[in-house]
Design goal:
Blueprint: E1 13-17, H1 19-22, H2 28-31, H3 35-42, E2 45-48, H4 82-94, E3 98-103, E4 107-108, H5 113-117, E5 141-142, H6 148-162, E6 167-170, H7 178-191, E7 196-199, H8 204-212, H9 220-223, E8 229-230, H10 236-244, H11 249-262, H12 281-284, H13 288-300, E9 305-308, H14 335-345, E10 353-359, E11 364-370, E12 375-381, E13 387-390, E14 396-399, E15 406-410, E16 413-416, E17 420-422
Parallel strand pairs: 1-2, 1-9, 2-3, 3-6, 6-7, 7-8
Antiparallel strand pairs: 4-5, 10-11, 11-12, 12-17, 13-16, 14-15, 15-16
Helix pairs in contact: 6-7, 10-11, 13-14
């Protein structure tokens, strides 16, 4: 585990924001008036999806994908000027939040500054042409980290941005050498002590597929040597299966609980129900009570919680990466619930052992933290209907931290019509 990791990140909330879709204007300046509301949700860290210019060659859609980067060292003129970006970062800080930006270091657009100026930095096919490891990513070409001059350029770029922002979300982090990330983190630490590193680790099937082709791909355990927070994609297929009815909740939660024993002591797996690449939670859970219960669990479970902009108003449509699709902000506002969950998250004993089990018949989850001194228990009716669960609590009356109401444990069981959290 990275020695610089701050364990308090486990109690933090990241808000993911796509400048193009956040407002009708789609600019840095247009985001600023919304910052007080974002902070009031209970947001510690604002993650800005890629802020850099987008390539023209092989562009997807009419506006291109922000992950097809043309120049790592400038900002997308579609969003505004560098001065506008600096003003936005200052405003984020003034609102009591930190700012991290996307680092897309696996690839660039085919017409990027590096592709034209440093063709030796890129992966080549048998004919000597720039190529990629994922065929569907037709708007990018992959970088080749066997070239140590590329390392120097990329690290210098990170140091430039570290003068401005508080950390990085690293795209497809698994396919860039951990040795590079380690060297980069060491260099950035001298510029921005305590910088935050969120890595997009990939699905296990993807790691296997890369390795079968002879390409590099790191596991989460390897990445935890450098990164503070990693994606939950190692068990994401189980989350999709359990929430889609293809498998039991118990199977998913067994994998979630096993992370407590399979990762380093201070592991931090991102807790999220959705992100820009995945189906919206409100679409996945059309039953409102089910959505609320899953949302409460995502805050209760160990790890930094992620909100994707629009999640707080139950948005059901995931904005396109390739077009301008402003978020529909007219859905049901979950902000009061999210703020309560944020306040509870700050009180959780997240250095204690975490465990979660399911009652598959009732569609209930029971999660707890225990370490001999602390005990926190959560009961979550994920199926959206009341149930009764066995809980590790003595019989008696307790306060539901989420509602302030009294709940009763009788004969070791607790009845829950909605999420119950006992601290």
């Amino acid at each position: 585990m990275s020695l610089e990791t701050n364990p308090a990140l486990r109690r933090s909330v990241i808000y993911e924001l796509y400048v193009r879709s956040h407002t009708p204007q789609g600019t840095f300046r247009a985001v600023e008036p919304d910052l007080p509301r974002i902070r009031a949700l209970g947001t510690d860290i604002l993650w800005l999806m890629p802020i850099h210019p987008i390539g023209e060659a092989n562009r997807k859609g009419s506006m291109g994908c922000p992950y097809a980067n043309r120049d790592y060292r400038t900002v997308n003129p579609e969003y505004g000027t560098l001065e506008d970006f600096l003003h936005l970062v200052d405003a984020i800080h003034d609102n009591g939040m930190k700012c991290i930006i996307d680092v897309v270091y696996n690839h660039t657009s085919p017409d990027s500054i590096l592709a034209t100026g440093h063709p030796e930095f890129f992966l080549r096919d048998e004919a000597g042409n720039p190529t990629r490891k994922v065929a569907d990513w037709s708007d990018v070409v992959d970088l080749d980290y066997s070239n140590r001059e590329l390392w120097k350029y990329q690290i210098e770029t990170l140091k430039i941005w570290a003068e401005i922002v508080d950390g990085f979300r690293c795209d497809v982090a698994s396919t860039v050498p951990v040795a590079f990330w380690r060297k980069a983190r060491q260099a950035v630490e001298r510029v921005r002590p305590g910088a935050i590193w969120l890595g997009e680790s990939v699905h296990l099937d993807h790691i296997l597929a890369f390795r079968r082709q002879g390409f590099y791909a790191a596991t989460d355990n390897e990445l935890f040597d450098v990164f503070d927070i990693l994606y939950p994609y190692d068990i994401w297929p189980l989350y999709e299966g359990a929430t889609g009815g293809a498998m039991s909740l118990s199977r998913y939660f067994a994998a979630l609980s096993y992370q407590e024993l399979s990762f380093p002591t201070w592991y931090n797996k991102l807790s999220c129900l959705e992100n820009h690449d995945q189906r919206r939670a409100a679409d996945r859970f059309p039953n409102r009570d089910s959505l609320l219960a899953w949302t409460a669990l995502s805050y209760f479970q160990k790890g930094t919680t992620l909100l994707y902009a629009g999640q707080e108003v139950s948005a059901v449509h995931t904005p396109s990466l390739f077009e301008r699709e402003p978020i529909d902000w007219t859905g049901e506002d979950l902000s009061p619930l999210l703020r309560k969950l944020y306040d509870i998250k700050k009180r959780l004993p997240t250095d204690a052992a975490f465990h979660v089990e399911a009652d598959d018949e009732q569609g209930l989850a029971v999660a707890d933290y225990r370490d001999g001194q602390h005990l926190a228990v959560g009961v979550f009716p994920l199926a959206g209907r009341p149930g009764t669960a066995a809980v590790p609590l003595a019989d008696g009356n307790y306060e539901n931290a989420l509602t302030g109401e009294s709940v009763t444990v009788r004969e070791g069981r607790l009845a829950a019509a909605g999420p119950v959290i006992i601290l």
